[in-house]
Design goal:
Layout: H1 4-13, E1 19-22, E2 25-28, H2 31-65, E3 74-80, H3 87-90, H4 100-106, E4 108-110, E5 113-114, H5 122-131, H6 135-138, E6 144-147, E7 152-155, E8 164-165, H7 169-172, H8 184-191, E9 198-201, H9 205-212, E10 218-223, E11 228-232, H10 241-248, H11 251-256, H12 295-298, H13 304-312, H14 333-349, E12 358-364, H15 366-374, H16 379-404, E13 408-413, H17 422-427, E14 433-435, H18 437-452, E15 458-462, E16 465-468, H19 470-475, H20 480-491, E17 497-502, H21 503-508, H22 514-521, E18 531-535, E19 539-541, H23 558-561, E20 562-563, E21 565-569, E22 575-577, E23 581-582, H24 586-594, H25 608-611
Parallel strand pairs: 3-12, 3-13, 4-22, 5-23, 9-10, 9-12, 14-19
Antiparallel strand pairs: 1-2, 4-21, 5-20, 6-7, 8-11, 10-11, 13-21, 15-16, 16-18, 17-18
Helix pairs in contact: 1-2, 5-9, 14-16, 15-16
């Protein structure tokens, strides 16, 4: 049997479909021949459709790209240090219309963005955002780590081969040399034959240096001793004139000349805890951690450490050193100062105004200092975000004015989140606790001495990792793998420890999900420890243990891994996605947008929803 309607349709589509002329002979279609004709007609229609679709796609792409390749004039990467995802909405009713609300209303938000490794610290966070990969590849395993060959810990951006430019020796000997892969900012420089300018700005050195990459035009960070933005000879031998002029304005002192009062009447801070609670830490010189904070008095005298730093370096103390200008880091005005400098960088370097795509990497670090000191439920934290909301508005308005509305591509994210203060959680009957890293290290050392005799068995305990004295283990004819297993078993006896995984396990296995995946992604054999420790949710490390003040971060729990991710501006259509994505997807997404190569160690994937 065959379908007469299909035959009629086929005849309508194919000339002379009622039969086939061969020479002067014509034969009528049999059912078999008719079926073949129908199939041929359908295949022909499909081919024509695909050809037309391909033609239209190429035409659309050609129109989109035009005769010259379209790129944004300026890319601005905004990283808010210690910004939990819920901060986007927790203070929503208090935000203005031009900051976070504008980003979310006009931009595209990935609501389910997480870090996919531990430890979740500032150094690894910034490196992972800009390299598009995890510490297992880029090598930044913490803010510091133990170096076995040197017998000491090293800082993430420490570099004694370079010299300070514009600041004290200790603050300026910094570079990205420890980061082992390229960044998206490096790739932009390479793709434009170094015509693109890349500038990094933050009050933290690591918040500027790691995002700016290895080939940056400039990376600038804040020296709290002399109250100036500085750099190192890794980038340039002297500060540009515009930086010198900016520093001469002495803005840090001006910000610290006024008390820190709440932006709104304090009674309106209903999203936060009471002002005076035992789990917050006061500024040195304050009796209680409450508003108003008398910044003029608190900053009136430089701390002894500042004077000692200058004296040890043989430097003449600048006038600014008479005050504690480092205090600005721990106030919302550190964000204001950072944006002041970033705006001056855009103006002086003509970023986004030179006919080539430039990149500004801006990190707001003060929320991290405030969070560590007061905790995420504090009025201080809320006030910091209400004021940051105003700074975001100032940034977006300035971009509209100088680069042109729709010509800048902005993304906003965070380098990690933060845990609630354990005492705050326990006050509401929610499980939580803290451990003392030094106590854990010393207790482990004593237990190993009891079992195996005298010796310095534990070289360090850092980033929730145990570094063993491997030469001593070998000297005592112990099997390293078995010794690591023994240490892991011992660590499980500490309160708050839920897992302990050996380096050998991480090197010989592979996990696609779960806690072991987080550990594997954060493990770099030459820099990581012998045993990795995982704490229970709600537990954190307290260096003042048993006292718990403020908060910290570093775990694989959601409060540390879940962060905002919002794209705004150039070719971004408003929307949101709740699909699970990771922080390492930012760099390849930018690479796809800019039509450049991904960073050389990139393992993330482009986010297709925002690219459509």
């Amino acid at each position: 049997m065959y379908d007469g309607r299909a035959i009629s349709a086929a005849r309508a589509e194919i000339p002379n479909a009622g039969g086939y002329l061969c020479g002067r002979q014509r034969w009528l279609l049999s059912p078999t021949a008719t079926s073949q004709a129908v199939t041929h007609a359908i295949d022909l229609k499909k081919s024509l459709f695909l050809l037309l679709a391909a033609f239209l796609a190429v035409s659309a792409l050609a129109q989109k790209k035009g005769r010259s390749l379209e790129r944004p004039k300026l890319v601005v990467g905004v990283v808010v240090d210690q910004m939990r995802y819920d901060y986007l909405y927790r203070y929503w009713e208090k935000y203005g219309d031009g900051g976070f609300k504008r980003l979310l209303g006009e931009g595209f938000s990935y609501e389910n963005t997480h870090y996919n490794y531990v430890p979740t610290y500032t150094g690894p966070g910034h490196a992972s955002i800009y390299t598009g990969t995890t510490p297992s590849v880029h090598g930044i395993v913490g803010n510091n780590w133990y170096v076995r060959e040197a017998g000491r810990a090293t800082y993430v951006t420490e570099d004694k081969t370079v010299q300070s430019v514009g600041g004290t020796v200790e603050a300026g000997q910094m570079s990205p040399r420890h980061m082992l892969t390229s960044t998206i900012t490096d790739e932009l420089r390479l793709a434009t034959n170094f015509q693109a300018k890349v500038i990094g700005v933050s009050v933290k050195d690591r918040g500027s240096i790691l995002p700016a990459g290895h080939s940056a035009t400039g990376a600038y960070w804040y020296d709290g001793v002399n109250g100036a933005f500085i750099t190192s000879t890794f980038y340039q031998n002297s500060l540009p004139e515009w930086v010198k002029q900016f520093n001469s304005r002495n803005l840090p002192a001006q910000y610290l000349d006024k008390p820190w009062n709440t932006l709104l009447p304090i009674a309106q801070y209903t999203e936060s805890s009471a002002d005076d609670v035992p789990w917050e830490s006061a500024f040195r010189g304050e009796a209680k951690p409450v508003f108003p904070h008398d910044l003029p008095r608190l900053s009136a005298t430089a701390p002894a450490q500042t004077q000692a730093t200058l004296q040890a370096a043989g430097e003449k103390p600048p006038v600014a050193a008479a005050r504690n200008l480092d205090l600005i880091r721990s106030t919302p005005f550190g964000n204001s100062l950072s944006l002041d400098f970033a705006i001056e960088a855009i103006r002086a370097e003509q970023l986004g105004q030179r006919g080539v795509t430039d990149f500004l990497a801006l990190s707001f670090s003060s929320p991290d200092y405030v969070g560590h000191q007061f905790g995420p439920n504090s009025i201080e934290a809320q006030d910091t975000y209400l004021r940051l909301d105003q700074e975001i508005k100032r940034l977006l308005d300035y971009l509209d004015k100088t680069v042109g509305r729709g010509n800048a591509l902005v993304f906003l994210s965070a380098d990690h989140g933060a845990a609630h203060s354990p005492d705050f959680l326990r006050s509401h009957r929610i499980p939580a606790g803290s451990v003392g890293p030094r106590i854990m290290r010393d207790s482990l050392q004593r237990e190993l001495v009891r079992r195996h005799g005298a010796g310095n068995w534990v070289l360090a305990y850092d980033n929730q990792q145990v570094y063993l004295n491997r030469p001593l283990v070998a000297q005592r004819k112990q099997n390293l793998r078995q010794f690591q297993d023994e240490v892991a078993d011992i660590m499980l006896n500490f309160a708050g420890v839920t897992r302990a995984i050996t380096a050998d396990d991480l090197q010989k296995s592979h996990w696609e999900s779960g806690m072991l995946m987080y550990l594997e992604n954060g493990y770099f054999p030459k820099r990581s420890g012998d045993v990795m420790v995982v704490l229970e949710p709600g537990w954190l490390e307290s260096y003042a243990y048993p006292v718990n003040k403020g908060t910290t971060h570093g775990s694989a729990s959601n409060y540390d891994t879940h962060v905002p991710l919002v794209f705004w501006g150039w070719h971004v259509r408003p929307g949101e996605s709740r699909a699970p994505v990771t922080i390492i997807d930012i760099a390849p997404t930018l690479a796809s947008w800019l039509h450049i190569q991904e960073p050389d160690g990139c393992t993330g994937k482009p986010l297709v929803e925002v690219l459509r």
